């Protein structure tokens, strides 16, 4: 069962064929699979984007490239294919986007629309400020609701230190907000982080989540998906 | 649209409009004497390999004309007619055709329309095709950054997608339309072209 979910996660992010005109190589940088991995190194265009002054008005226009997948208002899809971005911390958005561009997080579906050809560092800063300002209503996808007590117990024990009591996360520390996120996306990422497939993961989180079975992660994701969201 | 943004857009339009009045007469004349042969008297071409220009966004039209002039976009039929236009001419021609009214298109294969609608409005999550509506807008009318597609001849629309896919057309900024087309199957391109031809024109 555990293997199966991993396989599904891999199939979802798996490589798409490269067209003839796309001369640029797909970027790849060492991640958590390699020795000496340092999470969230402060350098390169991530640092530039964090320092830039974002403008929400320009961000709204730049986000048009993204809304064919992440949808209007950045609400994502409850089938989990495309996550919700509305209300996420700007720091987290900048880290995730620049990780994809540098090849520290694999996302071949998104890369051509968020890579260096399509977006400038200033665009990233603008989009992040815009997305942070958007509401994230409680109509996100949820689990089956059958193991919420267990979910809460595990969350309070092992996750709340970083993702906060109600899933607010912590912007300055680059801990994602998880409230309002779609259940299926949460579950896919939790599995990918546990199994080492998400290469930009935080080693302390990996330690915290390593021991959990697929069933535990379902309970956790379900509980998280029900946090009060604004 | 919020207030501040609409003010910025209005300012941009006014700046563009100034040029347009200076050249409106010329543009009308050029359109009638040169372009009409292929694109129709009112910018609504009859032959389906020639695009309708009527009602297309002015900023997009000017960009295409400039791209043809600089060789960034290539087309043998057009080239001889674009000898020596200035920025003012291309801008005025864009504004001229943008003001014309688009004639509705005709659906040729109604069985494809529903699949085309689904792709346009919702994309394809398996192959990672974003919904076209995200950029070209839900009503297919586009905006200053993305061309209008509603009501266009299916033959022309299909050819453009094939050209983006092969790279024969490569004047899209950031390769974004090529990246979309690269993921489209021939069947998806045909279906969405039918849907667009039958889309309501405003």
Your description of this structure?
The complex is a heterodimer of chains A (230) and B (202). Chain A has twelve helices and no strands. The model of chain A is unreliable at 7-15 (pLDDT under 50). Chain A is mostly helical and 230 residues long. In chain A, helix 2 packs across helix 7. Chain A has helices at residues 2-13, 44-51, 56-62, 64-70, 90-102, 111-114, 121-132, 148-158, 160-163, 183-194, 203-209, 214-225. Chain A is globular and about 50 Å long. Chain B is globular. By secondary structure, chain B is mostly helical. Chain B has helices at residues 3-39, 58-70, 87-99, 113-122, 133-136, 154-166, 176-182, 186-198. In chain B, 54% of the residues lie in helices and 0% in strands. Chain B has eight helices and no strands. Classes of the chains: A mainly alpha (230), B mainly alpha (202).
List the helices and strands and how they pair.
The complex is a heterodimer of chains A (230) and B (202).
Chain A: H1 2-13, H2 44-51, H3 56-62, H4 64-70, H5 90-102, H6 111-114, H7 121-132, H8 148-158, H9 160-163, H10 183-194, H11 203-209, H12 214-225
Helix pairs in contact in A: 2-5, 2-7, 3-7, 5-7, 8-12, 10-12
Chain B: H1 3-39, H2 58-70, H3 87-99, H4 113-122, H5 133-136, H6 154-166, H7 176-182, H8 186-198
Helix pairs in contact in B: 1-3, 2-3, 4-8, 6-7, 6-8
